[in-house]
Amino acid sequence: MKDTIKKVPGLAVVLVGQRRDSQTYVRNKIKACEEVGIRSLMAELSEECAEDEVLNAVSEFNQDPSVHGVLVQLPLPQHMDEDTILGAVSLQKDVDGFHPLNMGNLALRGREPLFIPCAAKACIELLLRSGIKLKGKNVAVIGRSNVVGLPTTLLLQRHHATVSVVHAFTNNPEDVTRVADIVISAAGVPNLVRGSWLKRGAIVIDVGTNPIEDPSLEHGYYLRGDVCYEEALQVASAITPVPGGVGPVTVAMLLSNTLDSAKRFYGIS
Amino acid sequence: MKDTIKKVPGLAVVLVGQRRDSQTYVRNKIKACEEVGIRSLMAELSEECAEDEVLNAVSEFNQDPSVHGVLVQLPLPQHMDEDTILGAVSLQKDVDGFHPLNMGNLALRGREPLFIPCAAKACIELLLRSGIKLKGKNVAVIGRSNVVGLPTTLLLQRHHATVSVVHAFTNNPEDVTRVADIVISAAGVPNLVRGSWLKRGAIVIDVGTNPIEDPSLEHGYYLRGDVCYEEALQVASAITPVPGGVGPVTVAMLLSNTLDSAKRFYGIS
């Protein structure tokens, strides 16, 4: 793109507050942009700023023709309305794919969303690139968040998997996971999925990234997935680690969505 | 409403073509409107009309302040783009709830759709009014159509059920239905669900309305559900019949959505 039309894709990130994990995620995304030649912009706002300031930042990026993706790092401070702010991101630049119209188009057969949410896209990409066919496969998705569980479920159904969604109110979740060919966990509960929850030979995708405090470490914590990795290794035929599994692929999908958006904007395929 | 503000809710129906089943459905809806005091309007267009004519009819009803619900009877003739036409219905009058933005709001936690699609709402209403709690219940939904299966799944998840979606590519669907506390079938395949597919005591909602040809009958056909009713009766603790089960409740939900829309329009609660 840089060679042919002398333009590069642009990704703008809005970061509100000083959460360490959010700062790390944003840094990783910006670093990834640099590596592949995507221009990155950032608006950093204080924890105490007004909702309007965030909306203004989003609005400026919406109007900037050099920006093709606008991302609001979640979670936002409690005094802000997440729906309002996410709803303000231009549909054409919603590279996270969280806009309700985009989610509706992901859910409805025969329609195409402009963007597939990055974590969901990462899970399915990992499976497909590993040569795993999804059609007719029995998949248990643990967690039904707007950010991961829901779009992953909808995307799996597009690939004709048979999906069961397990959540906090599910009785005996292990009964559901134990018959699944593929288990995708995005519950945010460390070590939730034990070896005994899995069918022998199951494929496990662990989207959980749960910080566990450990004062002896430099950063004061380490990351654990939702899956008890050591136990699952004994039963599963394949499993993604945490960290280093779904996380980096999710960032790659964000870059891919940004590139797609820029191509769409400049009318190149 | 008629007594207090001297207004009545209005429902407009767009019917294209001469399909006998569509004509019957529309007639039932209009009759139901009359029974409860909702004013009904209808635009009848020929099978051969241009897509623009349908769009014009929708647009006129969108602009008519005495109309609070606009409904396009499906299926449309093959030469028309269903997405375009359904997408043209004003969000505020989309009493069928098929607009992708509405569906996205139904899917996303923390958001509220303006309208819940009528068949989905009917299934859940039947369960709740029968005193059946959905939280934590294991529910198998058979079929994933935009009109029934998808919104039913999304609505069940709002009620904290654990949902598995079975469809044409599911291997051994009976393995999924046999562990379900509640089975909702909207597959459009007569007698698909056999007694052996059900757990003893399961609750069965049959959304299928499949016409079976029978020249000896006055109309030339009779209606069959997706469920083998006689077999299911031996196993299930409760089951809805076809006809006379979900169908009339779905029409009632359409009236309810139209009334809600009119209340919203006139600002009364």
Largest Cβ-defined interface: A-B, 37 and 37 residues
Find the structural class of chain A using helix and strand composition.
Answer: alpha/beta
CATH architecture of the largest domain in chain A: 3-Layer(aba) Sandwich
Span between termini of chain A: 10 Å
Subunit structure (chains A, B): Homodimer.
Function (chains A, B): Catalyzes the oxidation of 5,10-methylenetetrahydrofolate to 5,10-methenyltetrahydrofolate and then the hydrolysis of 5,10-methenyltetrahydrofolate to 10-formyltetrahydrofolate.
GO biological process, one term (chains A, B): photorespiration
GO molecular function (chains A, B): hydrolase activity; methylenetetrahydrofolate dehydrogenase (NADP+) activity
Describe the model:
The structure is a homodimer of 269-residue chains. Chain A has two domains: 2-93, Leucine Dehydrogenase, chain A, domain 1 (Rossmann fold, 3-Layer(aba) Sandwich); 118-245, Rossmann fold. Chain A is 39% helix and 17% strand. Chain A is built from ten helices and ten strands. The first copy, chain A, has helices spanning 2-5, 20-36, 51-63, 82-88, 100-107, 118-129, 149-158, 173-177, 229-235, 246-266, and strands spanning 10-16, 39-45, 69-72, 138-142, 162-166, 182-185, 203-206, 210-213, 221-224, 238-239. In chain A, helix 2 (20-36) packs across helix 10, helix 6 (118-129) crosses helix 7 (149-158) and helix 6 packs across helix 10. Chain A is globular, with a radius of gyration of 19 Å.
